[in-house]
Amino acid sequence: MLTDFKELENDVGFQQAVRTSHGRRPPMTAKFPGTAIGARPLATSFGSRIPMVSSMGRPVTGAVQDGAARPMTAVRAAGYTSSLTRGSTFDPLGQSRGPAPALEAKNEDTPEEKIKILEKKVNDLIEESCMAQSRGALQLALEKAKEAGKKERALVRQREQSGNADNINLDLTYSVLLNLANQYVNNEMYPEALNTYQVIVKNKMFSNAGRLKVNMANIYVKQKNYPKAIKFYRMALDQISNAHKEMRIKIMQNIGVVFVRMGQYSDAITSFEHIMSESPNIKTGFNLILCYYAIGDRERMKKAFQKLISVPLGIDDEDKYIPSNDDTNSNMVIEAIKNDKLHQMERDLKVLTEKYIMTAAKLIAPAIETSFATGFDWCVDMVKSSQYVELANDLEINKAITYLRQKDFNQAVETLKTFEKKDSRVKSAAATNLSFLYYLEKDFDQADRYADLAMNADRYNPAALNNKGNTVFAKQDYEKAAEFYKEALRNDSSCTEALYNLGLTYKRLNRLEEALDCFLKLHAILRNSAQVMYQLAHLYELLEDPQQAIEWLMQVISVTPTDPQTLAKLGELHDSEGDKSQAFQHYYESFRYFPSNIDVIEWLGAYYIETQFCEKAIQYFERATLIQPTQVKWQLMVASCYRRSGNYQKALETYKDIHRKFPENVECLRFLVRLCTDMGLKEVQEYTTKLKKVEKMKEIREQRVKSGRDGSARSRREGSAGSADSSHSSNSTKGERLSAKMRSLPGSNEPYEASSPKEIDASYVDPLGPQMERPKTGAKKRGEEDDFADEELGDDLLPE
What we know:
The chain is mainly alpha-helical. It has a domain at about 110-285: Alpha Horseshoe (Serine Threonine Protein Phosphatase 5, Tetratricopeptide repeat), CATH 1.25.40.10. About 60% of the residues lie in helices and about 0% in strands. A two-stranded antiparallel ribbon has the order 1-2. A hairpin with a 2-residue loop joins strand 1 (about 65) and strand 2 (about 70). Helix 5 (about 190-200) runs antiparallel to helix 6, helix 7 packs antiparallel against helix 8 (about 245-260) and helix 25 runs antiparallel to helix 26. The protein is elongated, with a radius of gyration of 50 Å. Mean pLDDT is about 75; it is low at about 30-70, about 720-775 and about 780-800. Its main location: other. One of its GO terms (biological process) is kidney development. InterPro entries: TPR-like_helical_dom_sf, TPR_rpt. Positively regulates primary cilium biogenesis. Also involved in autophagy since it is required for trafficking of ATG16L and the expansion of the autophagic compartment.
């Protein structure tokens, strides 16, 4: 109902109410007995405020308290007045009262606070222990775990003393014990770890602690206590419900592996077959094939192989990661996930699966049929009908490699030639292997032909380019070979064979600095390659930096400490630097590992003669006599050592023995005459007559040489090691330096000084055999099993 305010002036009742006590309250005149206070004026919000009390003695809401007026909240907002009270200021926030008093400090002396602080310390120690383990600081991690255990025990005692034993933090106790056990395992302290796990398992207050028996079983496996490991695996299996299917499968797989290690293949087969029926996976399928192979069951091997290639991987098809041309947003998503961790995990799983399938096929192919070729054909047929159809061609190439291991080169070549009409990738791989085979057989024309075929099929195949360079290198066209090696490196910068061969090519072209650069780059990739380090040493020797050469050879020795050629080379370099003691040490070590090196034997014998230890030199020259029985100079050296040491009788017997074997040797007859004269023997006249006769024959031969006959070859047939003929002279080589050193030894008329021994080959020999100076081929070794394998195929297709 609406009210008409205009009619209020004419409303008699309303006007009467305004004029009477209904509209205006009378003044309050409360009196207090016994006081002088009389009537007080009415306090309003506009005048002076005087405290007013109610009948109970409480000030009314509008009263002034402590100098601050509190307004009637029904009329105005609190804290704001139209006039100020005497002595008061406008301070709605109460800032005039000063800062708030400080908070009361926590009392850390209470038992509850001490327990909380100690709990935090224990948690921090567990975290520090785990972080130290992740950094590889296993000892520090164990110390932190032990310290956490001590703090946790102190925490339990403190709870008991404070009467809070019922509030013990079981999760914290479990974490401390589990971390301590794990750190014991990481530090290979297995008994301590087992004791700690036992404490957890026996405590009924810990839920699901029985699963830790798997960890205990793993420790027993490491200790090779297989029966106990099986026992604990089975105990853990009993305590895990069927709801945790994946965990049960893993434990059963461990049981099967332990049975394999024990040689109980039937029990292992039972475990693996159960897994393949419940939740098949690649590793279990491969292990099952191994067990069937161990017991020689052909049919079950075939069935297991069929199960292996039918195991679902559960990964997406590679076509998913091929971008489409239409949807830009979809292409951006594909680009983001193409190389993420999930896709990398999928690729790794696929590579591992292909590796297991290839290995299983190579293993069972000779066993499932009467011949390995028939077995390979069966495996190829099975793979072609599976999801791994692309592996069929790689199995065919492995079939050719198996032929090579059996030395059946013709069958290997025929098998590889069948790929000439296949797709470009397989064709290039087969042609690369064929080029490698013909190169080994030194059929460089065929090697060149198949290298061209491999390049035409796949121009970016670095192995094919490398083999093409090798065939050109064999024809001594080094500049062209270098171009092929460079192209191979442009296509694949990690092709170490091409980089090695490029260094050899530059060395042949006498571009030593460029060769050095190649081998230094290769050394950065192959840090422990003895071949690369030896080539670096040889280059520094050619660059006339013997100290650097010695340093690189010492690195070779650190990798192959028993290599006799490297030790001999070190001895030669130290000898050229004048360090006889180091030279002797390295030559002696070289002789110890390979006592048939004539150069080393000659140097050691000459060293002992030079140091006046002729008796020790005899054993080396006697060994040289065994190695080269037709060389008279070694026998003359033995006789000379006997004579130098004062054993004239033994020297005479040795000279007589030499004269019987080499009756026309002038030096031997001269010493027989000298010894018989000094010893006063009757044979002196006989040997003098023979000497004159031999010298006469020698003069006749020299005249024939002057008339154009080649006397050097005849003198070798007659065993004349003491011929003065200079037809064998050559460049300054290691053999000449050794012979010159022996000629400089004391005694001007010694037989070994007048002799001109057969020139010793001083060509540079690499420590791992002559193949080091030969270019590396495109097919390279993989593991100890492979004689060679095609580089183009990749790691996943090569036998392990």
